[in-house]
Amino acid sequence: MTGTLAIIGAGPKAVAVAAKAAVLRDMGIPVPQVLAVERTAVAANWQSSGGWTDGNHRLGTGPEKDVGFPYRSTVAPRRNAELDDAMLRHSWQAHLVATGQFAEWVDRGRPAPAHRKWAQYLRWVADNVGMDVVRGEVTSMGVDGSRWALRTEMDTESTTINADAVMVTGPGQAERSILPGNPRVLSIAQFWHRASAHERITAERVVVIGGGETAAAILNELFAHRVSTITVISPQVTLFTRGEGFFENTLFSDPTNWSGLTLAERRDAIARTDRGVFSSRVQDALLADDRIRHLRGRVAHAVARDEQIRLTLHTDRAGESLETVHGFDLVIDGSGADALWFTDLFTQDALDLIELSLGGPMTGERLQESIGYDLAVEGLSPKLFLPNLSGLNQGPGFPNLSCLGLLSDRVLGADLTESADRNSRRSHEHQPLR
């Protein structure tokens, strides 16, 4: 495809697409101009400044699953082997060789790198391929004719970026919490900023809200702090361990047979291996610490009272809805990751267009079920790529780091040359659904 592809966020997915586009361009294959709109820096969420980590915790995915993995390209017919060979120049191992770290990494048993080391790798790739990064925060997404119009702001200046397609990445805002402004409630960003500053947390009863890998990383850090009890609140019946064997991992790196599964089978596979589960490494640490407890349910309400934070917990049991109240000295809201964070950016004209494509009001479920092979919303022009929502339809590896090379193939292989007047025809034939 040709034209301009704007990517919101300059994380691993953006770097992978930019790298693949640069290699294809060097091979003489037409590709779009790729530009990333980033409010801070490349790989910011993997550094302490991004609010999602202190930078010292270990990467949950093997670093060999880098920007070109699994090196099984399909986007350059008859030249895919050449493409894979060229992408190896931007691999994790190539980075280590270039920076004099390869032998030490091998001698240490190929350990998972710290998040800050992963950020260094991503920045190395971005620099090598001349990744085009526009500094700014996207504040709205509208439609200008047959193109997207992204309004961005940086400091006191604002500008509009027009693009033939947009890819949305990123987990949302780490600053969000259930009780903003209360010193006894920490957002993900507030917690990691304390950890980065080596501030020791001292409390009797601490609770972490969330059962996914974000909450697991927080727990892993809390083990070293002076707390008496740590309670984990999640909707699952228990704290499940993520499946990390060969067969589970294959689902992430090779989605060939994913479309042959029923919807129920796909949901079950994601629940067992990816959604709301802890890595085996974190589970081993949990087993060794008798301060950990688990409460099943969803937090419905939070209030500060008697020098505590009282959480109202909603739980469904045997067909009945129960509410219980629990008091804690410190609450860490680890549920901040939100795959739908970008939906508030759409202007009314963009929202109308999306709802026409979805056949109804925009919901998370409708968006997930609309994602096509190219990781974009089917039937929507201009293209909107949503890899973070593509797991259900296309495979669980696309929302995370498990098959960045396949992700870039799907996106760069998409057709942006569809008739530009498709949307205008639709707007005359239909009215937005409400």
From TrEMBL:
Going by the UniProt record, its keywords in alphabetical order are: FAD, Flavoprotein, Monooxygenase, NADP, Oxidoreductase
Asked whether the UniProt record includes NADP among its keywords, one would answer: yes
Q: In which pathway does it act?
A: Siderophore biosynthesis; mycobactin biosynthesis
Instruction: Identify the Gene3D superfamilies for this entry.
Output: FAD/NAD(P)-binding domain (3.50.50.60)
Cofactor(s), names only, from the UniProt record = FAD
> Which EC number(s) does UniProt give?
1.14.13.59
Molecular-function GO term, any one: L-lysine 6-monooxygenase (NADPH) activity
Q: Does the keyword DNA-binding apply?
A: no
Q: Which reaction does it catalyse?
A: L-lysine + NADPH + O2 = N(6)-hydroxy-L-lysine + NADP(+) + H2O
Checking Pfam families in the record gives:
Lys_Orn_oxgnase
Root EC class:
oxidoreductase
Q: What protein family is recorded?
A: Belongs to the lysine N(6)-hydroxylase/L-ornithine N(5)-oxygenase family.
What is this protein called in UniProt?
L-lysine N6-monooxygenase MbtG
In its UniProt entry, the species of origin is given as: Mycolicibacterium confluentis
